[in-house]
Automatic annotation (TrEMBL):
Protein name: Flagellar motor switch protein FliN/FliY
Example GO molecular function: cytoskeletal motor activity
DNA-binding listed as a keyword: no
The Flagellar motor switch protein FliN-like C-terminal domain, residue ranges: 21-93
Family affiliation: Belongs to the FliN/MopA/SpaO family.
GO terms for biological process, alphabetical: bacterial-type flagellum-dependent cell motility; chemotaxis
Organism: Roseovarius azorensis
One cellular component term from this protein's GO annotations in UniProt: bacterial-type flagellum basal body
Record-linked Gene3D superfamilies: SpoA-like
Pfam families: FliMN_C
Keyword annotations from UniProtKB, A to Z: Cell projection, Cilium, Flagellum
Amino acid sequence: MTDKMPGQTNTAAGDLSNPFSAVPIEITVSVGKARPLVRDLLKLGRDAVLPLDRRVDDAVELYVGERLIARGQLEELEGDQKGQLAVRLTEVANLQDGLE
């Protein structure tokens, strides 16, 4: 279930009269950040572990370009797509005002 942000309207069907509605966009899902020192980064090799600033159950952030558009939880798909990652949206931005 998606929580609406204040002022958000339901546009799931989209505006099919707008020619831009069929243009694909790339969404980047950020699971966390790491800030190693360069000397530590140079030591990394196969099977090295790079700790992130988030825990497994923390929300991930969805971006279009540099703009935060939503937050959600990582999930594994079932059935024919078993093993594929997906994101269940928990918070969606009002694209005019952004996500706070």
